[in-house]
Design a protein that fits this description.
The chain contains 11 helices and 7 strands. By secondary structure, it is α+β, with helices and mostly antiparallel strands. α5 packs parallel to α11 and α6 packs parallel to α8.
Length: 325
C-alpha cells in the first residue's frame, strides 16, 4: 500500500510565512512497499503526522549520525538522534501532543512505550532474523537493497548471512534470542493481547485525541501487521478487530493524505512504492566507495532496523552493552 513519504502542512492549514522548518527524517529504506523497514523511523514520521509538522523521509547514513544510529533528523540546522529524544525536542519546538495529560496518563504512556520498544521490538526482530520462516521472507528484500547500493550480486548472499549472524548474536545478548521460536511467539501473543485490552474501543491509545504514545503504538502495530511475516504473533494481531481498526483509523486519517512531494524523485518513488518494489529513498549511499558501503553493512547492519539494538553485545562479564541511549 502506498503512503506519501512527505507532508506539506500547507495542506492542513493555510500557507504561512511563519511556519517552522521542515523536519528531515533519515531512516533505513523502503521494504515490502512499506514506509520504512524500521518501526522507529515510522514512529518519528507518524508523530510528525499527528502533530501536523512538515517532514520528509530520506535514506540515512549511520556514519553521519551523531550517535551512529538511525533514525536521526535535521531541523533548523540541528541534528537530533534517538527517536525518543527526537520527539521530546520536536514537542518543545512544535507541539506537545501530551499537553493536558494527567501524571497517571503520562506514567501509563511511558510504561507502554517501554513495553513496545524494549520487548515487542525484540520479539519481532528475533522472529524476522532468527526464525528461518522470517529470514526466508526478509533475506531476498535485504539482498535487493544491497544491490541498489552497488554491492555486487555475488556478494549479497554472503553479506546477508554475515549480517544475520550479527543480529542473532545481538538477540541472544539481549536475551530474546535464547528462547525457542515457540516461546518467542508465545511472548509476542501475550504482548498483543495486552495491547488489545489496553486500546479497547478507544479511538486512540489514551482517549479521544492522538498522543505521543500513538506514534509508537501505531508504528509497531503497523510494522507487524503490514509486513509479510507470518507467525503466531502476527496472526494474533490480525485477529484483534480493535487493533486492526486502530491501525486503519490512524492510517486513513494521517497517512493517506496526498500532498505535493517535497524531494527530488518523489514521483518515481511513488510509482515503485505502489508496486511494492521501491528500491530506496532519496539520499542513497551510491556516492560512497564500495568498500565504505560494505563496511557499513557488515559492522552496523540495516539489521538494526531500529534505534534500540545498535551495538548489543555481551561483555566479558556477561553484561549487555546497549550502544544507545
Amino acid at each position: 500500500m502506498f503512503f506519501e513519504t512527505s507532508m506539506n502542512i500547507d495542506v492542513l492549514r493555510g500557507a504561512s510565512s511563519l511556519r517552522p522548518a521542515m523536519v528531515k527524517i533519515y531512516g533505513f529504506f523502503h521494504a515490502f512497499g512499506m514506509i520504512d523497514l524500521s518501526p522507529f523511523v515510522v514512529k518519528v514520521a507518524t508523530w510528525c503526522r499527528l502533530a501536523g509538522v512538515e517532514h520528509s523521509l530520506h535514506e540515512g547514513d549511520r556514519n553521519k549520525a551523531p550517535k551512529g544510529k538511525l533514525p536521526y533528523v535535521e531541523v533548523d540546522g540541528e541534528v537530533l538522534c534517538d527517536s525518543t529524544h527526537i520527539l521530546k525536542r520536536l514537542s518543545a519546538k512544535h507541539r506537545d501532543l501530551d499537553d493536558g495529560l494527567t501524571d497517571y496518563d503520562r506514567a501509563l504512556s511511558r510504561a507502554f512505550q517501554s513495553m513496545i520498544e524494549e520487548h515487542l521490538y525484540f520479539v519481532s526482530l528475533t522472529l524476522r532474523w532468527q526464525d528461518d520462516r522470517g529470514w526466508a521472507v526478509l533475506q531476498p528484500e535485504f539482498a535487493r537493497y544491497l544491490k541498489t547500493q552497488g554491492v555486487p550480486g555475488l556478494l549479497t548472499g554472503p553479506l546477508t548471512g554475515v549480517v544475520r549472524g550479527k543480529v542473532k548474536d545481538a538477540a541472544k545478548a539481549q536475551g530474546m534470542g535464547r528462547h525457542s521460536v515457540a516461546e518467542i511467539e508465545a511472548a509476542g501473543v501475550e504482548l498483543i493481547d495486552a495491547l488489545a485490552t489496553f486500546v479497547g474501543e478507544k479511538p486512540y491509545a489514551l482517549g479521544d485525541a492522538p498522543r505521543t504514545l500513538d506514534a509508537t503504538l501505531w508504528a509497531f502495530l503497523y510494522s507487524n501487521h503490514d509486513a509479510p511475516f507470518e507467525n503466531a504473533m502476527t496472526a494474533r494481531l490480525k485477529s484483534k478487530a480493535n487493533l486492526v481498526a486502530y491501525i486503519e483509523r490512524v492510517r486513513e486519517r494521517y497517512w493517506m493524505r496526498r500532498s505535493p512531494p517535497r524531494r527530488a524523485g518523489a514521483a518515481a518513488t511513488a510509482a515503485c512504492a505502489r508496486a511494492g518494489n521501491c528500491p530506496s529513498m532519496q539520499g542513497s549511499a551510491r556516492g560512497r566507495s564500495l568498500l565504505a558501503r560494505l563496511r557499513v553493512v557488515v559492522t552496523s547492519p540495516a539489521t538494526r532496523h531500529c534505534d534500540r539494538v545498535d551495538r548489543l553485545r555481551e561483555g566479558s562479564r556477561g553484561r549487555v552493552d546497549h550502544g544507545c541511549s
